[in-house]
């Protein structure tokens, strides 16, 4: 299929709102709409950019940190109380998502995990290395390195004949070669410019590898102030809140 796929960065920031940016939330639109990650500020960006959340069938989560998944309770409660949603919602995330979901609901809004709603919420766990299909969207999760206490995934998504890869949060790991291979778009974390820290990626390390990735287009996101202050020295495309690209 050659239908256009539209990607909008509803949030391109890090956990701390560096540069005044909203937390990670990426909207993919075509014959259906879905999100990649849903950080705690996601309902702000959804409203700011006039997105209809009832049109979103699926939310893919790369990992369960608050700046990537903390918006789920707000999304679900908004769907119930404000949008009067009736369409099913699927949340697909790493192993542990099924146990995490009621905990995050209760931590945010006590009692909300047992409320009966007019739409079903289906939790699906993605097995690292195993290709899957969720609501007609193909996804292959690759294990990445973002701390030993949780499973973090890079997501290789096939949608309308196009491949989109999202690194999630990770330090450099060779699994990104397979995840990004021949992708129409590779969305990669570039947290620092050149500083090497555990669990996060820096621009200079990515620069060493990007010709080996064989991705058609690369966009950096999830940048902190160190990276944002050096954007004039960056010779590759970067995300910003509200940015729209087509593939």
Automatic annotation (TrEMBL):
Lineage: Bacteria, Bacillati, Bacillota, Negativicutes, Acetonemataceae
Residue ranges that the Swiss-Prot or TrEMBL entry lists as coiled coil: none
Name of the protein: Metallo-beta-lactamase domain-containing protein
Domain Metallo-beta-lactamase: from-to ranges: 22-222
MF-aspect GO terms: 3'-tRNA processing endoribonuclease activity
